Amino acid sequence: MGTVETVSGAINGDELGLTLIHEHFFSSDEGVSVQWPHVRDREAEHSLALESAEAVKSHGVKTVVEPTAMLLGRDVEASRRLARETGLQIVLCTGIYTYDYLPQFLLNRDADFISSLFVHDIEEGIQGTDVKAAFVKCAADEPGVTENIEKIHRAAARASLQTGAPIMAHTRPASNTGPRQVEIFLEEGVSPEKIQMAHTGDTDDLGYIEGLLEKGVNIGLDRYGLDLFLPTAARNATLLELLKRGYADRMFLSQDFDIPIANGLDWYPPEILEQLQAAGAATDWGMTFIFEKVIPELTEGGMTEEQLNTMLVENPRRWLTGS
Ligand SMILES: [Zn+2]
Fold first, then answer.
1. Do residues 6 and 134 lie in contact, with contact meaning Cβ atoms separated by under 8 Å?
2. What span, in angstroms and rounded, lies between the C-alpha atoms of 266 and 11?
3. 52 Cα–ligand 1 center, Å
4. Nearest to residue 133, comparing CAs of 110, 162, 104?
5. Structural domains in the chain?
6. What is the 87 CA–ligand 1 centroid distance (Å)?
7. What pLDDT, in 10s, does the model give residues 27-42?
8. Kind of pairing, strands 9-12 and 89-95?
9. Is the distance from CB of 152 to CB of 158 less than 8 angstroms?
10. Which residues pair with 195 in a beta bridge?
11. 257-280 pLDDT, tens digit each
12. Non-local CB neighbours of 313 within 8 Å, separated by 6+ positions
């Protein structure tokens, strides 16, 4: 049984237990945080994170995987404090969350150099601590797989090959980013079972989804509650059909809940958040939504206990440990 790095140290894969594979306790704009720290209320952020951590624990969650990478405000000390105060196992990543932009430092350096940064986080530790990253995160969104995005994907692939760490890729099905992202990873020689295509559940286009699954990769049905991308009923219908087609062992269930974003602390000021909510963008979004509403509906729709266990326990263990 392989081990998994958490902010509280390495654990055995079978200690992961019930796992949410994609949630954000913390996120922030790193530049703003450093230059104007007075607009951040870190104690308020910590309190909100505590609240969600206790809420997920009450549903039996033992581990939360947090793909907050560079440019999304990864904060190892905040995560470590949250884990210490709640006993929750928190798994962090390395990587870069960008849709195209890169700072000059990375713009003018190649994929191998960027890969060495990722490897540093996986082998040495994050932000000067001995907390190690357990996986590599990268992203492609509306601009597609641009030159910069391709470079980050190749860097992620090389870091994965060198260390054995799996990769999680943020995707945008509406922009058809998935196929090219997978193609790059496979070109670099990454095994498909190490690859998780996050946000694939934002579409109900089974042709697109099966096109990815046919390559052997895993998919994230991980944005439950984000109705602006796809409402819950359509997410559930798609998930049930994929279970029927036999893909339970490559599907992940999560919410991509982002506490600072959901509380008007980062991307959106409260007044814009209110408008988004009024438009029904994410009325049910939260870190326990799948337990409260989604899982009961899926069970009613024919999902078995075994399939649920596969998605919430077995798949995270297999993807994170590689065995
Ligand atoms: Zn996310």
1. yes
2. 32
3. 16
4. 162
5. 3-321 (3.20.20.140)
6. 22
7. 999 999 999 999 999 9
8. unpaired
9. no
10. 167
11. 999 999 999 999 999 999 998 999
12. 16, 17, 18, 19
Whether 76 contacts 127, CB under 8 Å: yes
- Write down the H helix ranges in 124-269: 147-163, 178-188, 206-213, 232-244, 259-262
pTM over 0.70: yes
Phi, psi for 102 (deg, rounded to 5):
-135, 140
Contact 147, 139 (CB under 8 A): no
Distance in Å, CA 198 to ligand 1 centroid:
8
Distances in whole angstroms, Cα of residue 186 to Cα of each of 167, 171, 233: 12, 16, 33
Distance 169 CA to ligand 1 centre (A): 10
Q: From the CA of 102, how far away is ligand 1's center (Å)?
A: 19
| C-alpha count within 13 angstroms, C-beta hemisphere, residue 13 | 14
Distance 190 CA to ligand 1 centre (A): 22
